[in-house]
Amino acid sequence: MYILFFLLWVLFNGQITLEIVLFGIVIAGVVYAFCCKFLDYSPRKDWMLLKKSGYILAYLGVLIWEIIKANAATLKLIISPHTRVHPVIVRFRTDLRTRTARVLLANSITLTPGTITVSLEDNEYTVHCLDRRFSEGLSDSSFVRLLHKIEGQVAQ
């Protein structure tokens, strides 16, 4: 996080001089110390995030790919004149441990065209799907498997 603060300082200044770099080191340190003291942040969290960054990047890649695939499927569903749409509401549970992972899964489902997360209560999701084919594999999707890895537990 410290490096991110420093890079933002240099970026916002628009040039690199010795004075800007030295002042940026101090300012980034002060902002980082503030985050550690008042925002429940720590260097340990930075280290954990760095260790999980590969899985996070993989998750973003899978999310983008799933959005592209769902866009194509939704477009095909809309454009086809003879295709009948069968909307469905699906309920499923996951064993994700953290609230962050559960919310990330709900948001990823909503970002994917053709599906909307209607509610999330504890570990139970209610999802509206534009067509019943979009509901296949929601509970054991690649999103869930990668979120298990990010949480540090082995996917079952």
How would you summarize this macromolecular structure in one to three sentences?
The chain is α+β, with helices and mostly antiparallel strands. It has six helices and three strands. The longest helix has 27 residues, at about 55-80.
3D structure, described in words:
The structure is a single chain. With about 160 residues, the chain is α+β, with helices and mostly antiparallel strands. The protein is built from 6 helices and 3 strands; from the N terminus they run ααααβαββα. It has helices at about 1-15, 20-40, 45-50, 55-80, 100-110, 140-150; strands spanning about 90-95, 115-120, 125-130. Strands 1-3-2 form a 3-stranded antiparallel beta sheet, with helices on one face. Strand 2 and strand 3 form a beta hairpin. Helix 1 (about 1-15) crosses helix 2 and helix 4 (about 55-80) packs antiparallel against helix 6. The longest helix has 27 residues, at about 55-80.
Alpha-beta content class: alpha+beta
Gyration radius, rounded: 21 Å
Number of DSSP strands?
3
Q: Major beta sheet, specifics?
A: 3 strands, antiparallel
Overall pLDDT level: 87
Q: H/E order of the elements?
A: HHHHEHEEH
Main attributes?
156 residues, alpha+beta, three-stranded antiparallel β-sheet, 6 helices, 59% helix
Write the layout of secondary structure elements.
Elements: H1 2-13, H2 18-38, H3 43-51, H4 53-79, E1 88-93, H5 99-111, E2 115-121, E3 124-129, H6 142-151
Antiparallel strand pairs: 1-3, 2-3
Helix pairs in contact: 1-2, 4-6
